[in-house]
Amino acid sequence: MAERLLSVENLKVSFFTAGGENQAVRGVSFHIDAGETVGIVGESGSGKSVTAKALMALTPPPGKMVAGDIKFRGESVSRLSDKDWRKIRGNQIAMVFQDPMTALNPVQKIGKQMVEVIRRHRGLNQTAALSEAIEMLRQVGITEPERRVNQYPHEFSGGMRQRVMIAMALSCQPELLIADEPTTALDVTIQAQILELLGRLKERSNTSIALITHDLGVVAQVCTRVIVMYGGMVMEEGTVEDIFYRPKHPYTKGLLRSLPKRESGFKERLVPIEGTPPNLLDPPPGCPFMERCPHAMETCAALPKVTEVSPSHRYMCWLAEGAEEARVQ
Amino acid sequence: MSEHNELLVDVRNLKKHFTKGRDVWGRTTDVLKAVDGVSFQIKRGETFGLVGESGSGKSTVGRCLLRLYDYTSGEVHYDGHDLSALGERELKPYRRRIQSIFQDPYSSLNPGMNVLELIGEPMDIHGLQRGEERKEFVASLLERVGLKREHLYRFPHEFSGGQRQRISIARALSVRPDFVVCDEPISALDVSVQAQVINMLEDLQSEFGLTYLFIAHDLSMVRHISDRIGVMYGGRLVEVAPSDELYDNPLHPYTKALLSSIPVPDPHVVSERVEWVREPGSVIPDLREVSPGHFVAME
Q1: Which of A217, B44, B119, B125 could be joined to B263 by an S-S link, Cβ 3.0–4.6 Å?
Q2: Which residue, among A167, A169, A187, A188, has the nearest Cα to A177 in the 3D structure?
Q3: Does residue B221 lie in a domain region?
Q4: Which domain holds residue B127?
């Protein structure tokens, strides 16, 4: 049994806006073990990015974690002070964002920004930190790192900047890397390189990765386990095989069905999920997917229980209850 | 595709160069060759997909066809007429026939106009129906794109991304065009909504006999919707072929690299990635037909 690195219990995050309380995350529970790559999938508004930020206590105002508990290595971190968090952020949990241009300081050389991070978190001196920065850049596939450390962010392409971000995040040897849509802004060829890079890092270190994405292709190619979110809740959770070959939740099934097929010779009509995602200012009390679900029934107005299919695979749907009743009869 | 034989759009050696730098005398010193000699044809009723990485020039080609840009050189023939030779006044009837849908439905709709005004505006510009007749037409168009009559007096912020893209589509169709340039029409939409919009574009195409230029970076969707696909790189077309032919039998090394980069949504399918780096200073040659309908830019 792998070591439990992170566990999230009943996490709730709300944004208190002029229009009311936007309940972005409404009771999310999951865990990440050492060495795993966990994909958190969902569309915009599903709460995946808010969940990721909450893991590092980076929820921006007017957002607030209103309930739940986050444990890192068995210790609760959700009530830590800012000062204590600074020791964890970067050192043990690091984050890579979608847009590397806004995450880097445009008027500072790459080397200087990396040295600052390394010195702060690892207590190395200037010279040692600089050679460490150069080594990290080389590891993420940047050629001539000795020259590149003296360049500014605008002298790097989007893919290269994302590599710098990853190098910076990994320079402190974190135990958990949270990557929030790290390849969404990149071209497919560059995306493939970054995903390969993440894969190679896994082979070398035991760093766990939480990959937040909306791209099911990316999930299938890199992740070992998947959490499917919708309307601020976890709809289904399982290994990649569970999710892609044995999906249980109607939303997961719908997502997979809506992808274009790759067979040639005939043009198959796409099968979309009709409707639009729920409004989280006034979320439905029951299953968030109810309005768009082809199997919706009266019981769906109440929140379904979580059903375990196997030790690795669980989902939240009333259909599971129905299926069990049918078997009993 | 055998059913599409009549030529609608004929792009001949299109070039669009942007001035990047000038010296103190105002003379051009640095030029960005966004599109540098591109030729292709689109037949009436078909969907031509244009793919390539950011900066490859695919959106610039679309903007040149819409004459949002005046191109540096080359010709665009539309339904037998050379548009490059026309002035703004003579161009107006073609501006009605050629419409566009853009990526971001949040910035392409004027937030201060309601749906009736938004969809009615192009009709005013081209002097089509007015008054009650126009309102009826707009309402029927709204219903056709999956919205409701009661949405007529609502504003863009009251709609989701997918619904806004439906409004953009209704706006484009309000003047009964025959050619629509779709520039990344689904990339800003949620995964679960993308298929809805694609299906609708396909339905509208067969209902109104539309021809599409579909510009996108999502290669699996482009394959789904397009009859033929052109692959752009560095302002040039490197390969043009019928969709299935391009995906099953790519010839240009860049096309191979691009296709092998698509992450397959199946955990057991591991695609063997091909990399390609263009030799610095090398010139991309003109397209050459290697098998019927399959063109590639290779020596």
Answers
A1: A217
A2: A169
A3: yes
A4: 7-296
Whether B1 maps to a domain, the answer reads: no
Mutation for testing the A interface, residue in B54, B163, B192, B272 having most A CBs under 10 Å:
B192
pLDDT per residue over A237-277, tens digit each? 999 999 999 999 999 999 998 888 766 656 678 888 888 78
Structure-token pair, residue A156: 């790097």
At B96, the pLDDT band (50, 70, 90 cuts) reads very high
Please state the ipTM of this predicted complex: 0.81
By the 8 A CB rule, do B213 and B9 touch?
A: yes
Beta bridge partners of B49: B214, B229
Bridge-based pairing state of the strands A176-180 and A208-213: parallel
How many domains in chain B?
A: 1
Residues 6+ apart with CB under 8 A from A109: A149, A150, A151, A152
pLDDT for A211-242, tens place per residue?
999 889 999 999 999 999 999 999 999 999 99
**Rounded to whole angstroms, how far apart are CA atoms A329 and A60?**
51
Q: Residue B23's CB: how many other CB atoms inside 10 A?
A: 9
Report DSSP state, residue A89. Answer: B
Q: Per the CB < 8 Å rule, is B257 touching A277?
A: no
Q: In CATH terms, is domain A4-92+174-251 a member of 3.30.559.10?
A: no
- Per the DSSP assignment, residues forming a β-bridge with A225 are A38, A239
Across the interface, do A262 and B260 touch by the CB < 8 Å criterion?
Answer: no
